[in-house]
Design a protein that fits this description.
globular; alpha+beta; about 90 residues
Length: about 90
């Protein structure tokens, strides 16, 4: 499990190398109401048309892992006591 803040380049590199993985999209400040699960291949979290900083800077950060159980642990640390996600992306269907 790895967290990316203010480093889109490293984040996008991780996605490229871990296409079977998963990503939690989180606000910069801890918000248990916004813990969104995506597949690493989801275009909503890796669109090359976005400007630098769109993924891990400004308003968001990412936690990435190769399996969902690790991200359930991260969700607990984000304030979701049961390890659930506030949303599972409807586009990529993780």
């Amino acid at each position: 499990m790895i967290e990316f803040k203010n480093d889109d380049e490293a984040y996008l590199d991780w996605l490229q190398k871990n296409q079977q993985g998963f990503v939690l999209n989180l606000r910069q400040k801890c918000d248990p109401g916004y813990v969104v699960l995506h597949r690493a291949t989801c275009g909503l979290i890796s669109n090359s048309k976005n400007l630098s900083g769109a993924y891990t800077a400004r308003s968001y950060r990412k936690i990435c892992a190769v399996n969902i159980s690790e991200l359930q642990q991260a969700a607990r640390q984000e304030g979701r006591a049961d390890g659930s996600f506030s949303i599972r992306c409807g586009v990529c269907g993780p």
